[in-house]
Amino acid sequence: MSASRALLSNPHAVASPTASRAARPRLSAPSTVPFARLRIRSAILSSPAPVATASEPRRRISRTGSDASLRPKPAVLVAEKLGEAGLAVLRQFADVECAYGMSPADLLAKVAQFDALIVRSGTKVTREVLEAGRGRLRVVGRAGVGIDNVDLQAATEAGCLVVNAPTANTVAAAEHGIALLASMARNVAQADAALKAGKWQRAKYVGVSLVGKTLAIMGFGKVGSEVARRAKGLGMHVIAHDPYAPADKARAIGAELVSFEEAIAKADFISIHMPLTPTTSKVFNDESFKKMKTGVRIINVARGGVIDEDALVRALDSGKVAQAALDVFTVEPPPKDSKLVLHENVTVTPHLGASTVEAQEGVAIEIAEAVAGALRGELSATAVNAPMVPAEVLSELAPYVSLAEKLGRLAVQLVAGESGIKGVKVVYTSARGPDDFDTRLLRAMVTKGIVEPVSSTFVNLVNADYTAKQRGLRITEERVSHDSGSAEAPLESIQVRLSHVKSKFAGAISDGGDIVLVGRVKYGVPHLTVVGPYEVDVSMEGNLILCRQIDQPGMIGKVGNILGQKNVNVSFMSVGRTFRGKQAIMAIGVDEEPDKETLEKIGAIPAVEEFVFLEL
Ligand SMILES: NC(=O)c1ccc[n+]([C@@H]2O[C@H](COP(=O)([O-])OP(=O)(O)OC[C@H]3O[C@@H](n4cnc5c(N)ncnc54)[C@H](O)[C@@H]3O)[C@@H](O)[C@H]2O)c1
Ligand SMILES: O=C(O)[C@H](O)COP(=O)(O)O
Question: Spans of biased composition, class Low complexity (predicted)?
Fold first, then answer.
């Protein structure tokens, strides 16, 4: 069993003074304030370093240490052709390997050596690939829009951020849609092939006009609306179906939003622009073809899977559908003997929608910047499987993110025996209005703090909620308004409360029977300010010894002496008591980890009732 697995099955090993330090998963290097910004970013997307040998349990390389030159450059695998401009952006900070045309087996064998993988639509990023990359792969960049070739659920479970490049190829795809529409209506491809074969067939290739015809746009997003705009210019009557599109956007372009049924029933031409999802899979099928006008013409530059291709062949054979123009197919490339591709009334292109010089240049830069940002730990505006946190919010929340993680980390180390944690309550006290800030990031970091010390799972903003759910951890949140506080600081304090658990340190149990820790940020540094019923004030850096004793003179000196004899530097010390002469606790921040003997000496002081050593 690996050391981190051992910690998973015995959560309490982590707080034991005798537990090996190397065996405990650690995320960050000791913090320094100037790196606060970097640290928050790293916490969002950090992943454990891949380094692990039989003798050395998996350890995490800090990506936030003070010497940038010591940090390894991230490695990026580019699996499909990417424009030079994008590669140049990536090469500025990463080792980039372009391995075009890899087989699925090649990809599986390689992926674990990379921090990021960039693909287009031709590479399937399956659960297997993401599993193979687990431990190192942090980002999948899709150089384009459609992410149906990436297993998003598996990526989320692995804490792997998926980013795409959603805007740079919109116009190219729309232009290709219009090109297919016009060339299909005038039989350009068929006539071209015939003429090249020596046939001059003017009567055979009489086309149909576009002006005045009804075009139904199915999916009124970026590409769909651009197609609509261009079709209006061709004099077409444009209707659209999109359950999620705002009517005013359609109206502004001069398109009318209608139901699916109405769209397909009224259209002379149907242009498909919806993504492939479980809902849209084969939404164009025998039943829907039946409801269309006889002689309808269909264009698809979205995804092949939205059409039942066998049903389309039947509809073409029967004449229900007069023509189809297809850029995309359920299986790409389609089989050589595909009836659909070979059908004389079908015009095909090999997924060329995004393939213009301009679009590929734009996509390459868009995805390179998104991947670079994600590897730096920034949240990308094009994150597909994570919430978006704007940079200014991120920077303001930086010390609170660190505080949230440390409170979670301390709380889990205080849990005793086999009592698993189920209920976690996080209370945010703030002078700001309830809608003023988003707590997802803080909740994710509390989860990270609770889960990571006791498991081999690494947690980040992408997978925090999923991980909590998987582990049966119910995290509830409460906002408490702090009327007399300053709204300048986003938060006054964060409380982490673990209910229905036993503690190995009775002093951390509040009157209500829960483990309670409260912290706040002072001068940009997280401080622990409440432990159970006791008020303390200790900076959350290094390690912490909590000691419960009978309140009496000389205790600080005794403990300080024992630590001093072993050269353990005390960074902070704070005493909190309920009543004079009754119980009190000492919170002692230490730079070094005291050895077992030193800790036992502290425990042997007669007035000391209990103590615990905690890693921050
Ligand atoms: N052929 C190509 O090379 C190429 C190039 C670019 C985009 N695409 C594909 O085109 C599609 C659209 O791209 P986009 O950039 O416009 O995406 P988009 O997200 O901007 O637009 C998709 C629209 O589809 C709508 N939609 C979702 N479910 C729907 C449903 N059941 N019925 C009707 N509408 C629905 C959404 O509300 C959205 O407005 C994607 O599948 C993308 O992968 C293909
Ligand atoms: O979804 C997309 O962006 C398009 O289908 C383009 O795919 P490609 O990058 O493989 O050309």
Answer: 13-26
